[in-house]
Amino acid sequence: MAELPNPQERLSPDTFLRGLWKENPVFVMLLGMCPVLAVTNTTINAIAMGLATTFVLVCSSVLISLLRNWIPKQVRIASYIIIIATFVTIVDYGIQAISLELYAALGAFIQLIVANCVILGRAEAYASKQRLHTTLVNSLGMGAGFTLALLALGTVREILGSGSILGIALFGEGFQPWVVMILPPGGFFVLGVWLLLFNWLRLRKERKVMEQSGVAANAG
Q1: Taking a C-beta distance cutoff of 8 angstroms, is the pair 11, 157 a contact?
Q2: Are 159 and 116 spatial neighbours (Cβ–Cβ below 8 Å)?
Q3: 125: left (phi over 0), alpha (psi -120 to 50) or beta
Q4: Which among 12, 6, 4 is positioned nearest to 133, based on CA atoms?
Q5: CA atoms of 135 and 62, how far apart (whole Å)
Q6: Per-residue pLDDT tens for 100-148?
């Protein structure tokens, strides 16, 4: 039996915005947790990892979308990994050239971007089935959502754990930093609080939409 063609998504604001809210990689899908917990002990590390992941996500998704009709299904996953690894290598050398201190702070998590579930998942579930322009917009939204999530964690952890933001001291000499916040247990704690807040906001919005739908139905 002949295979049905993949449905092509129409470009809309939701194509970009779902990565920020409805399908946020960190706060909704809980993907890529390794770098989320490991490198968000400072704001600058969180921004750098978010931008590096976004670069690899966008570039690999665009290339996979362009090549989707030429990559055999039997070797598609291996092909995706080779494409992703190519852009990870570019990011790896780029960060080394920009700042050795930042490169040392991010450690092996730069190379581990190649195994990030967010990137491989978008390649398989979206880029391999959609056209170039929708893939580009969708991957930009996913990358922005991932970066904002890392930034949210990194900002809270640096303020509470070091009393600073972007390395700039916020409090006086009397401030006693919560050192645990820049350690792995602090990452789990802050992530849990953000997940509670994010899900509370989502449920609140969904409840309002249902109430408005009910009012409109009764009025009709």
Answers
A1: no
A2: no
A3: alpha
A4: 12
A5: 6
A6: 999 998 888 898 898 888 899 999 999 998 999 999 999 999 999 999 9
